[in-house]
Amino acid sequence: MANVTRRTFLSTTVGAAGGVAAMGLIAGPSTLVEAAQNVADASDGPMSSEPMTAYVRDAATGEIAVMVGHREVVTKDPQLIRRLQRVTR
Amino acid sequence: MSSHREAPGISKDPVADSTDLYAFTSPDHPDTVTLIANYIPLEGPDGGPNFYSFGDDVLYEITVTNGGSVADAITYQFAFTTEYTDPNTFLYNTGPISSLTSASWNVRQFYSVTRIKGGKAEVLATKLACPPVNVGVRSTPNYAALARAAVHPLDGGWVFAGQRREGFYVDLGSIFDLGALRPFQEAHLIPLPAVGGIDSTKHLNVHTIAIQVPKTSLTKGGELPTDPTSADSVIGVYTTASRRKSTVLDSGGRTTDVGPWVQVSRLGMPLINEVVIPIGTKDFWNSTEPKNDAQFVANYAHPELAGLLPVLYPGVFPNLAAYTAARVDLEAILLTGIPSGIIPGFQNSTGSTPADLLRLNMAIPPASSPNLNGILGGDLAGFPNGRRVFDDVATIEIRAIAGVTIPLVDPSFTPDGAAGAVSDFSAAQFSSGAVPGNGRYIDHFPYLGTPLNGFDNPS
């Protein structure tokens, strides 16, 4: 597997702009490169059935953190945040 | 406490709360080092029906630095899973538990061990059995045998994870009642007659993760350390616990944990986050890495407790009260290790980078007659050269903060007479063996004694 340190193991945050490689997990480490500008559309390929959580880290900058498995993907989607804000009014 | 409930956040999360960390040359296998990380503070032996266990949703780690550096070199990870033999009973066990495969044992915990070293993660073992907790005389009539069966071979050494007896001793009720030490409280600002200390943890258990590994697997080059002056003989150790970044508490009692691991607890030297780091910073400290501890140096250079002692004990610490220089002695002992030239024949330096690590010079052989006060008592094999299960770390650190170690770096300073005498317990309590007490330790791995059973304790 790729070079693993304790800290990279713990923090597998993936930047939206840079596409930083995520590091391994306890069993069956996965190495993925996220090239996301936004969350992928369903038409891009098969969807994972894994639980996924997302939270708006900073509405002002449009920053959303999406967590799935042992990874965290940070993306920017101001339009999605505005839609979420509308449905929670 | 050493690190029991030491920060606001982690005090609400006991299974992830590291309480004590030990690192020492194994006295019965001196070519090995034993590393012990304890979790779950103030664990009552009678904690049924849902007795204490490790967190299935917590990642526990013991990390080692080597080669005179504070950089992570080796990390051992421990991940637990719980299984029910019969989910339709409320009982922990439905009859006596006679073995680790006993059908009457309902709530079982297993764990895996992964090692990260040299940029590679390697699963060393899976589904290792923890022992049950020591329920009582009917349920676990031969507990020592159950615990022995849960000592597993691992990578040239041994591993154990499960309940043991609490090894740390302290007068908790007194020390946090305005810094009182009962044997000396007649001199306190609010005086009371002097009495012996109360061993607050005497009747408690803890959950222990212990590994015994060949020294050659911890040194940078794989050599057996024999030269106390060599940087390659020194390791630094710390333990951490981490939780997943996102937890969703769903309807129907379902919980979903996703996202990367986030560190919520760490521990190297005893009592640091407890009494050196201020309350507003403790949770942050728990989230940070030792190699970034330069940001906390001011708390060591002018520790709050050193300023409080002359106030709480008027006239007892005049020399300490007058000492305004930065406590370079504490910075060395607690943050960088003791360099060569300070104590004859000894060093445990990891360089100039401040880091909260428990440092062990592995070339120092085990003591034939250990002194509870470790290096302060002339025993180079004891704290702060690593930490043995019986070392009186509370006394050692109180005396150091009171000024007894200042002459190591500033020979012009004369410690106050009280600095070398203060302790949670009276000399008579130590000399009689009342403290640390019988049964608290054993002479072989995992060295912490058989946990107290829930039937007889509290008695």
Topology of this structure?
The complex is a heterodimer of chains A (89) and B (459).
Chain A: H1 6-10, E1 13-14, E2 52-58, E3 63-68, E4 71-76, H2 78-87
Parallel strand pairs in A: 1-4
Antiparallel strand pairs in A: 2-3, 3-4
Chain B: E1 18-25, E2 32-43, E3 58-65, E4 72-84, E5 107-117, E6 120-129, H1 143-149, E7 152-154, E8 157-165, H2 172-175, E9 205-214, E10 234-249, E11 255-267, H3 272-276, H4 282-287, H5 297-301, H6 304-312, H7 318-322, H8 328-336, E12 358-361, H9 393-404, H10 427-432
Antiparallel strand pairs in B: 1-2, 2-9, 3-4, 3-10, 4-5, 5-6, 7-8, 8-9, 10-11, 10-12
Could you name the key traits of this structure?
heterodimer, A: 89 residues, four-stranded mixed beta sheet, B: 459 residues, alpha+beta, seven-stranded antiparallel beta sheet, 10 helices
Describe what is shown at a glance:
By secondary structure, chain A is of the alpha+beta class. Chain A contains 2 helices and 4 strands.
Largest sheet of chain B: 7 strands, antiparallel
Residues in β-strands, percent of chain A:
15-25%
Strand order of the largest sheet of chain A: 1-4-3-2
Question: What is the total domain count of chain A?
Answer: 1
Mass-distribution shape of chain B: globular
- Element order, helices and strands of chain B? EEEEEEHEEHEEEHHHHHHEHH
**Span between N and C termini of chain A?**
46 Å
Mean pLDDT of chain B: 97
Poorly predicted runs of chain A: 16-42
Query: How would a textbook summarize the main sheet of chain A?
Result: 4 strands, mixed
Mean pLDDT of chain A: 69
Distance between the termini of chain B: 23 Å
Largest interface: A-B, 26 and 27 residues
Number of DSSP E strands of chain B: 12
What value does the Rg of chain B take, in angstroms? 22 Å
Number of DSSP-assigned strands of chain A: 4
Please tell me how large the radius of gyration of chain A is.
Answer: 14 Å
Output the structural class of chain B.
alpha+beta
Oligomer status: heterodimer
